[in-house]
Amino acid sequence: MANNMKKYLAAIARRLNMPKDVKDRVMNDFQSSIQGRREAGQTEDAIFAELGPAKKVAAELNTQMKDYTYIKSPWRWVCLAVIIGCILSLIFGGTLGLLMHLLNASLADNVGVIGGADGPTAIFITTSPDYREYVWYQAGITVLILIMSVLGFWRLRRCPRK
């Protein structure tokens, strides 16, 4: 039965939406309350029945400690979208860049003429930019944005109330 109580307490602690120090203090008080009920002669089944499901208990504790609970930042969804975009860019960007390079390869050596029939004439050859440089620049910038977004998502997952 003690194992059931540990699972019950762990389920409550997992659902508490507050800083670790406050959560530890609340859980210590809650465990003391349960210990007091045991000393009063209540069985674990009676304690479970009286307290209710872990989800309900955690919701009540979060409501009672609302000044200490976290609020979820909407900016974390922006960070998550940027993370997904960066990953897709790293996966498909190289492929797309290669296809663009292959399409431009046929146009890479275009010949142009400057001048007229009665004056000096210049002939020039144009080339497309090197594909490898494009991929390295794109990958480097994408990785930097990805790192910043992951750090932002991690930081903004919960914001303390003010």
Give an overview of the whole structure.
- There is one protein chain.
- The two termini are 41 Å apart.
- The protein is built from six helices and four strands, in the order ααααβαββαβ.
- It is mainly alpha-helical.
- Strand 2 (110-115) and strand 3 form a beta hairpin.
- The mean pLDDT is 76.
- The strands form two sheets. The protein has a two-stranded antiparallel sheet.
- The chain folds into two domains: 2-71; 75-157.
> How would you characterize the largest beta sheet?
2 strands, antiparallel
User: Kindly state the mean pLDDT as a whole number?
Assistant: 76
- Radius of gyration equals 31 Å
CA(first)-CA(last) distance: 41 Å
The residue fraction in helices comes out at 55-70%
Approximate strand percentage: 5-15%
Determine the number of helices (DSSP H or I, runs of at least 4 residues).
6
Quickly count the domains.
2
Shape category: rod-shaped
How many strand elements? 4
**Would you tell me the structural class of the helices and strands?**
mainly alpha
Query: Could you name the ranges where pLDDT drops below 50 across 5 or more consecutive residues?
Result: none
Q: How are strands sequenced across the largest beta sheet?
A: 1-4
State the order of secondary-structure elements, H for helix, E for strand: HHHHEHEEHE
Entry summary:
This protein is mainly alpha-helical.
Give the arrangement of secondary structure elements.
Layout: H1 2-15, H2 20-39, H3 44-51, H4 54-64, E1 70-71, H5 75-105, E2 110-115, E3 121-126, H6 131-156, E4 159-160
Antiparallel strand pairs: 1-4, 2-3
Helix pairs in contact: 1-4, 5-6
